[in-house]
Amino acid sequence: MAALHLIGGEKGGVGKSVLARILAQYCIDHALPFTGFDTDRSHATFRRFYGEYAAEALIDDPSSLDALGEAVVAEPGRRVLVDLAAQTMAPLSRWMEDVGLFEVLAEAQVPVTWWQVMDDGRDSLAMLDRLLRTHGGRVSYVIVLNHGRGSDFSAFHASPAKQLALENRGTVIELRKLHEPAMHQLDLSDASFWAAVNARGDGALGLFDRQRVKVWLNKTYADLAGLI
Prior knowledge:
Blueprint: E1 3-8, H1 16-29, E2 34-38, H2 45-49, E3 54-56, H3 62-74, E4 79-83, H4 89-99, H5 101-107, E5 112-118, H6 122-135, E6 140-146, H7 154-157, H8 160-167, E7 170-175, H9 180-189, H10 193-198, H11 207-224
Parallel strand pairs: 1-4, 1-5, 2-3, 2-4, 5-6, 6-7
Helix pairs in contact: 6-8
């Protein structure tokens, strides 16, 4: 079904683009039609790895965001994945209010899911709280605790922000840490997850790193079932 998936976190380095890549590969592997948008001008990570599927969206250009919004309702059954750069929630939220995006999507029966990627720092908690108080129950939330960017999420589990998320149709999932050398090699190769698992030869992952990626993806896919 058509759906808008916003992948954010507001701070740099929490793993937003990694999650966007996982969601794109999940759609490919499960034959789910999708279109991607990348709002990160500096790194364009999503477009680098999935350029066949992802276009640029300029967060400070209303015309560019209008095109993104039109893409959401253009084709029934097509998901739209948006990789949000750091510090983009405020301009994006202003555009949403200006164009009445939630009303347009409600009329078209297109749900919105906001994937909030978090490390274990307190600033991630503050950003989650601000997100929830900005959009409330107008969207569904998936809170992604990224163990590649933190190991102690006890502050999150004890926080009012977690309770507020659960009260607003929130789901909490944990993104397992991938073996660091394998993740590093993946990033250096500019390869999709499919290519990383299947490529052979110079610059490719070794046998057991390929297997690590495959096992990690399969476990992550099980956690994503029913969310995208």
